[in-house]
Amino acid sequence: MRILVSNDDGVEAPGLRALAEALSAVGEVVVCAPDREQSATSRSISLHRPLRIEKVSPWGAEGSPIERWSVDGTPTDAVYIGLNHVLKDRPPDLVASGINRGPNLANDVHYSGTVAAAMEGCVGGLPSFAVSLIRSRDYSHAARFAASLARQIGLHGLPKGMLLNVNVPAGEPRGSQITRIGKRSYLASVVEKVDPRGRAYYWIGGDEQAHEDVAGSDCNAVFDGQLISVTPLHLDLTAHALIEELTRWDLPGLERSTLPP
Ligand code: MN
User: Fold this and answer.
1) Using 50, 70 and 90 to split pLDDT, how confident is the model at 258?
2) For residue 44, what pLDDT band results from cuts at 50, 70 and 90?
């Protein structure tokens, strides 16, 4: 098994190293990751500027080094370059992203660069997963779980267009749970400051208030249950529940006979 490993915290991040080294017990690991922190870049892709890539010093033990590439772009760019250039002639069987420094829970998956990297693996037609760790610098539990998950994906595969989002609680996990996306709420916040030249600038994004109690959710699992959360995601954002309703709207020239299955 060959595994492409990426992240959004940058190619030197300790969480990336923990993931790469844990997965090297499962297969041949090649790291291709952003050259710097790219958290919260979501699915951003660099179509309007060139990218530079650099082979950097390998990780791992003597004799079984982990090949490593740095890309001066987003997580999506890094996985795209990994799949379509670095590993063009030796395609991987799996894409893994992480271990992120901090959670990627609830609707934060839409902003997450960590999840985006796994999504890009999914777009490339490969089974993919993202791993994030809540408020801790001890990556050992998350790394061990990622290796087990990679082995299970090797056995069972994943359906096309679907990926897994894993969140690991701080401290010793009690176990693991298959979950759904939960709800976190943040204080909407814009802080205005003035720069040394007298111009206003703004910091956006407030602190988390709390997670809502959603039964079976990723938030409940990690915060209330001390459980590792595994959420299956799919790339198809179609809201099937709304299709039929919309066909009843009075839209110009609306075809009513072509309801998708
Ligand atoms: Mn990050």
Assistant:
1) low
2) very high
Task: Please give the distance, rounded to the nearest whole angstrom, from the Cα atom of residue 38 to the centre of ligand 1.
Answer: 7
Task: Select from 100, 135, 101, 102 the least CA-distant residue to 116.
Answer: 100
- Give the whole-angstrom CA distance, residue 221 versus residue 88: 38
Phi, psi angle pair for 201, to nearest 5°: -135, 165
- CATH number for the domain including 29? 3.40.1210.10
Question: In this model, does residue 158 exceed pLDDT 80?
Answer: yes
Q: Cβ–Cβ contacts within 10 Å for residue 261, how many? A: 3
Instruction: Report the chain's mean pLDDT, rounded to a whole number.
Output: 95
- The whole-model pTM stands at 0.95
* Domain annotation covers residue 261: no
Q: For residue 218, is it left (φ>0), alpha (ψ between -120 and 50) or beta?
A: alpha
User: Ligand 1 center to residue 249 CA distance, Å?
Assistant: 42
Taking the centre of ligand 1 as the mean of its atom positions, its distance from the CA of residue 135, in whole angstroms, is 12
Residue 253 counted as domain residue: no
Question: What is the 133 CA–ligand 1 centroid distance (Å)?
Answer: 10
Rg of the Cα trace of the chain? 20
Domain assignment present for 108: yes
Q: In the beta sheet, which residues pair with residue 100?
A: 132
Ligand 1 centroid to Cα of residue 103, in Å, is 9
Contact 109, 218 (CB under 8 A): no
- What is the pLDDT averaged over residues 95-111? 96
